[in-house]
Amino acid sequence: MTLLNQDLAEPSSLSTVSTAGLLEKIEILRSALRWASRLERADIEKLLRQANALRDEVMQLSTKERFVAAAAGAGAAARPLPAGERRRALLARSFVFEGTFGDNPDLLDALEVAEKAAPTDLPVLIDGESGTGKELMAKVIHANGSRADRPYISVNCGAIPENLLESELFGHRKGAFTGAANDRKGKFESAHRGTIFLDEIGELPLPGQVKLLRVLQSHEIQRVGSDETISVDTRIVAATNKNLRQLIVDGTFREDLFYRLSVIHVTLPPLRARKDEIPLLFAYFGAEAAESLKRQPLRMTPRLRDFLLAYEYPGNIRELRNLIYRLSCLAGDTADLAHLPADIRPRSAPVQAQPDQPPVAMSAGALGEARRAASDEAERLFLERGLREVGGTVAELARRCEMNRPHLQMLLKKHGIRSRDFRPTGNGAA
Ligand SMILES: Nc1ncnc2c1ncn2[C@@H]1O[C@H](COP(=O)(O)OP(=O)(O)OP(=O)(O)O)[C@@H](O)[C@H]1O
Ligand SMILES: [Mg+2]
């Protein structure tokens, strides 16, 4: 029981950790565990604590090794690598992408900065327009650091009323203010040894900024209504879609806080600056949506595809993702301009129009014709959705719609819908 009687080094004294030393400790632990049936509960608990300490050491070591590899790679950055190779190199260094997708050089720059920043405790400021992936990037930084298995606490600074902000961030003592019925931990304490993500940092009012600055300087907090100082070991990642330098000029953001928060500064490019990625993102989110909605992968008419390739995406990746989910959900076999939300649909695309129908002339019969086209399209969408729900069984759909089967078959024929394309084993509808 050598290990039982010898205390493992605390994870904080890991500077001397080596792979050989760790393997030796693990071997001793394994041999101790062979006799586990003879151990008392207290001994088992001690062994478990030791196993956890070892796991922390291994985590720390792999993070360190990754950091060394990333730092070594920094020299090579002078020779630009093709995007695919840069992504593969990140993968080879066990980088955790957390679902971040894309090969755009600016995005890869951001991921490589995140890789180097992750194992350190330096504050990171992420900026970029809404929907560019700032929160995702914060998770990437957390997941690639030594705090990955510790808490990740997200705070939206713009969503907390000003009078509750201090208590939300730092906690309060019972009776500190009306409604403070119990002692309560704040977000900083909850994120102890982990990461706190301060989203919409540009929305933090000036008094909150002063308090945050104090935490960054002293690593201590005080709960509202208490004199006791509590040490917090929390890694700070902040994000904003505002131009903080402009806010400094306007006098609404403190310059000293900006410099404290932005030791590492990551800027995420808007989607319109990486349009080359849009086809890949279609495929990526199309497959994701098909799986989650249990549908065939999305197909688009050429004119919808052209529209989406040229579209500016003010809501960036979030907007593109939402659009693909919407189209996957609403379109039957093939999505068209008519399935776009009304506010972005080009004027020339009448709601529910047939894909290749020429613009309707404003003549006496035009309204009736437009009504007929819309009703036809609604009928087609209804039938496709229905068949999907019943797994392509015409008899079942007829039963549910209280329609006789030959009539339903006639409607399916009219729209060129093949029921077998909706059967689970069917193919060809994709
Ligand atoms: N590179 C990417 N690869 C895959 N998905 C992404 C990528 N970037 C963003 N997303 C997805 O887009 C959506 C929006 O991302 P996120 O919430 O991180 O954006 P944000 O910049 O924080 O937006 P906001 O400023 O509005 O809060 C999420 O569903 C996220 O998973
Ligand atoms: Mg966000």
UniProtKB/TrEMBL annotation:
This is Sigma-54 interaction domain-containing protein. It comes from the Bacteria. Keywords: ATP-binding, Coiled coil, Nucleotide-binding, Transcription, Transcription regulation. Residues 100-329 form the Sigma-54 factor interaction domain. Transmembrane segments: none annotated. It comes from Noviherbaspirillum suwonense. CDD domains: AAA. Residues 37-64 form a coiled coil.
